[in-house]
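Journal club prep — side note

Before the paper discussion, L.F. wants everyone to see what a predicted structure for a comparable chain looks like in token form. Sequence:
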Amino acid sequence: MQIAISVFSIFAVSLIQQRTPSHLVGKIMAYTSAVTLCAQPMGQMVYGFLFDRFADVVYLVFIPTGIIAGLVGLLSKRVFDEL
């Protein structure tokens, strides 16, 4: 969830601002910010749980996170090529 929210907040905000009619930008960005800010603590809790659970083998948290981050980057390439 943290990965999804991070990607959304970093890459999608500019796309939302470009595609939203100018009279709705403030409302849409307020909603987007609220969702992003509320989801970040949930992601932090998940990471905290995972680090507590796998304290002796932390690489079991880092490796999947790195793979997912790489996949998100590769999959978002197509979106940015269209822009």
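L.F.'s comment for the group: The two ends are 25 Å apart (CA to CA). Keep this in mind when we get to the figures.
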